[in-house]
């Protein structure tokens, strides 16, 4: 089956993205940013991902390290604190703010994650991750914003992107 990810036409460097998402039971998706459009590779080869997931019912929620595959996380890299995701069937408010090397993930009105890219520690974390063979991953300073088609029912609404 073809992948039907949706990406912006515009490329963003610094931005404030706000949207709402809701998943059905057991659903998995993601909000990608700083993606490189590549005809032979899926969006996750280059783009960072805020995880969109039914934490209680999707098996990926229980994999990874310290919950770093749950809703709101920097997928498979950095867990969130506090955990503020609402269960399947309820709307979640997500916000991603990217300003230079600093990125923040917000979920349901609370900042749940703040990290700095392009440091020695950043590149070491990437080298020790499942993304180590994806040369573009985590290195791009700008790119498309995308919503992932993972084959599950996920709804997005009230999508607003502001360049900073």
How would you describe what is shown here?
The protein is mostly beta strands and 164 residues long. The protein contains 1 helix and 9 strands. Strands 7-6-5-2-9 form a 5-stranded antiparallel beta sheet, with no helix packed on it. Strands 1-8-3-4 form a 4-stranded antiparallel beta sheet, with no helix packed on it. The termini are far apart. The mean pLDDT is 95.
Task: Describe the secondary-structure layout.
Elements: E1 6-7, E2 15-23, E3 28-35, E4 48-53, E5 92-99, E6 102-107, E7 110-116, H1 120-127, E8 144-147, E9 154-163
Antiparallel strand pairs: 1-8, 2-5, 2-9, 3-4, 3-8, 5-6, 6-7
Task: Please give a handful of descriptors for the protein shown.
164 residues, mainly beta, five-stranded antiparallel sheet, four-stranded antiparallel sheet, 9 strands, 5% helix
Provide mean pLDDT, rounded.
Answer: 95
| Category from helices, strands and their pairing | mainly beta
| Main sheet overview | 5 strands, antiparallel
Distance between the termini: 37 Å
- Low-confidence spans: pLDDT under 50, at least 5 residues? none
Strand content: 35-45%
Shape summary: globular
What spatial order of strands do you see in the largest sheet?
7-6-5-2-9
Summed up, the helix count is 1
Question: What is the count of β-strands?
Answer: 9
**Could you estimate the helical fraction of the residues in percent?**
under 10%
Rg: 14 Å
Order of helices and strands: EEEEEEEHEE
């Amino acid at each position: 089956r073809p992948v039907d990810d949706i990406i912006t036409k515009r490329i963003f460097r610094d931005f404030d993205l706000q949207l709402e998402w809701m998943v059905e039971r057991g659903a998995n998706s993601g909000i990608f940013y700083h993606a490189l459009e590549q005809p032979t590779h899926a969006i996750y080869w280059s783009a960072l991902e805020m995880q969109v997931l039914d934490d209680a019912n999707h098996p990926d929620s229980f994999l990874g390290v310290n919950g770093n595959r749950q809703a709101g996380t920097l997928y498979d890299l950095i867990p969130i604190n506090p955990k503020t995701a609402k269960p399947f069937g309820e709307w979640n408010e997500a916000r991603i703010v990217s300003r230079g090397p600093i990125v923040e993930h917000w979920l349901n009105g609370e900042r749940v994650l703040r990290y700095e890219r392009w440091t020695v520690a950043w590149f070491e974390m990437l080298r020790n991750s499942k993304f180590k063979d994806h040369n573009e991953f985590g290195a791009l300073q700008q790119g498309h914003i995308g919503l992932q088609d993972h084959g599950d029912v996920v709804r997005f609404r009230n999508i607003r992107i502001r360049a900073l």
